[in-house]
Automatic annotation (TrEMBL):
InterPro entries: AAA+_ATPase, G_ENGA, GTP-bd, GTPase_Der, KH_dom-like, KH_dom-like_a/b, P-loop_NTPase, Small_GTP-bd. The keyword Transferase does not apply. This is GTPase Der. It comes from Thermocoleostomius sinensis A174. GTPase that plays an essential role in the late steps of ribosome biogenesis. The lineage of its organism: Bacteria, Bacillati, Cyanobacteriota, Cyanophyceae, Oculatellales.
Length: 453
């Protein structure tokens, strides 16, 4: 990563994620009054004065317990610290100094990273200095009394923090391709991310719901930068209780909307479920480019017909995303994982593609000559005057016609197939807007009137 990293370290429930939200001036990190909400390390861009940096949130450190995810959380925190320029050790001023804080302090003193001590939950300026005084004994110099919720004291903390960071330099901004990795729980999303990055970037566990937040990772391949977004597994709404999983799924939906390309991961063993169909519909509704990744392909017994039968199964269950490319991989063994990037590049390119009006009308002219618009029983026939692309991401084409009601769904699908056959658009949805003559006349007579197609 080009920007310096600031690691946020501390035991569970001291307010690390709240501090991350404050420093990054966002509300992206999930905050919930429950230990273990943050598990993976998540990065957020931040700046103070003339310094740009990445603040990395980590899970709560517990050294005397090896149950469930705690060893993996420690591993993620250690990885965050290994790449950090400076660490902020967060403690709870209301709870006071604990044995867990002392254990973390002992470990931090063994690390070759400067440490700043932030005493959080000091909401009262009068009592803040008193609450912070107890933590001088940890040996990290002056403790900074702060309130992550209200922001008090964070300015003084950041003033000291930037002393450890190099000045920001004017660098040419490289365009990123944002790739969201989505799917049901336990289909292998985090394993796929780790296979891409080549390190244990996200915690992988057979326990459902391991990933709770959207995790951004920036990688570069052949001069192209990719922002990979691992997301929480999306279950049926009726099975989700209000809490960390609820927030994680909302983050996953937001990740779809901010992505250029969505990798929809399907478990090869389970096949396409009803939940997968709903998720594919969400991707289509949001207009995102998509690559369907069938994971755990190594676990399937195969013969010469297996892949063709599976493709037929996919086409039957996901017919509304037949424009998406499909690849069969194994994140565990690395089978064909490196090929996904090529499909992502193609989908991203097609997603932002623009086609000239003259080419669009050539396709329309040929399409109409082969299959004329339908005629009603009253003898009224649809007419397409011309078409033009009005936007991209996804490619959106407006067709000016005499009356949109004269074009049934079958003919509209035919026109879309003709565009795909002649122009490609593989890997991305396209939107056709059928605009009637009356609406065009209304716009012409009153150009300032807002219109809706």
């Amino acid at each position: 990563m080009s920007l310096p990293v600031v690691a946020i370290i501390g035991r569970p429930n001291v307010g690390k994620s709240t501090l991350v939200n404050r420093l990054a001036e966002v509300r992206d990190a999930i905050v919930h009054d429950e230990p273990g909400v943050t598990r993976d390390r998540t990065y957020r861009p931040a700046y103070w004065r003339d310094r740009d940096f990445l603040v990395v949130d980590t899970g709560g450190l517990v050294f005397d317990d090896d149950t469930e995810f705690l060893p993996l959380i420690r591993e993620q925190a250690m990885l965050a610290l290994s790449e950090a320029s400076v660490a902020i050790f967060v403690v709870d001023g209301q709870a006071g100094l604990t044995g867990a804080d002392e254990a973390i302090a002992t470990w931090l003193r063994q690390q070759p990273v400067p440490v700043l001590l932030a005493v959080n939950k000091c909401e009262s300026p009068e009592r803040g200095a008193i609450q912070a005084a107890e933590f001088w004994s940890l040996g990290f110099g002056e403790p900074f009394p702060i309130s992550s919720i209200h922001g008090s004291g964070t300015g003084e903390l950041l003033d000291q923090l930037v002393e450890y960071l190099p000045p920001s330099e004017d660098v040419e901004e490289v365009e990123e391709i944002k790739v969201a990795i989505v799917g049901r729980p336990n289909v292998g999303k985090s394993s796929l991310l780790n296979a891409f990055v080549g390190e244990q970037r996200a915690i992988v566990s057979p326990i459902s719901g391991t990933t709770r937040d959207a995790i951004d990772t920036v990688v570069e391949r052949q001069g192209q930068r990719y922002r990979l977004i691992d997301t929480a597994g999306i279950r049926k709404k009726k099975n989700v209780e209000y809490g960390p999983e609820f927030f994680g799924i909302n983050r996953a939906f937001k990740s779809i909307r901010r992505a250029d390309v969505v990798l929809m991961v399907i478990d090869a063993i389970d096949g396409v479920t009803e939940q997968d169909q709903k998720l594919a519909g969400r991707i289509l509704e949001d207009g995102r480019a998509c690559v369907i990744v069938v994971n755990k392909w190594d676990a399937i017994e195969k013969d010469s017909y297996t892949i063709y039968e599976y493709e037929k199964h996919l086409q039957g269950r996901l017919h509304f995303t037949e424009w998406a490319e499909t690849i069969f991989v194994s994140a565990l063994t690395g089978l064909r994982v490196d090929k996904i990037i090529d499909l992502v590049n193609t989908a991203a390119e097609q997603h932002k593609r623009r086609v000239s009006t003259s080419v669009i009308n050539e396709v329309l002219e040929e399409a109409v000559s082969w299959h004329t618009p339908p005629t009603t029983r009253q003898g009224r026939q649809g007419k397409i005057y011309y078409g033009t692309q009005v936007t991209s991401r996804p490619p959106t084409i407006t067709l000016f016609v005499n009356n949109p009601d004269l074009f049934n769904d079958s003919y509209r699908r035919y026109i879309e197939r003709q565009f795909r056959q002649h122009l490609g658009f593989k890997g991305t949805p396209i939107r056709l807007l059928w605009r009637g003559k009356k609406l065009r006349d209304l716009e012409r007579n009153n150009p300032n009137r807002a219109t809706k197609v």
